[in-house]
Amino acid sequence: MDAPISIFVVVALVFVVMIGVLWRYWKSVSEVTPSDEAMSRRIARLNDRQANRIDDDVLRSRQTSDDAWRIMVERGENTLRRPRYTTTRRATERKKRS
Q: How far is 51 from 43, CA to CA, in rounded Å?
C-alpha cells in the first residue's frame, strides 16, 4: 500500500521541479534588460535611417541640375500623395456621394 503513495509523491515532486525549471527558463527568456531595450531602439532608428537613404549608385554618379530638380519634384509629389488624416474615411465617402 505504501508503494503507490510513494510513487505518486515522487512523480508529483518531479512534476513540480519540471514546472519550476520551465518557469525560470521562460522568465529568463522573456525578461528584457534595459540594455537590450536600448539596443533594439538603436537598431530601429538605424533601420529607419537606412530606409530613407539614397541608393549608393545614385550617390556615386554625377548628377546634373536637371536630375536634381527631377528628384526634388518627385519627392515633393510623394509627400503630397500621402494621405492626410484630417478626415475619416467615412467623411470622404460622403463627400464623394454628394
A: 12
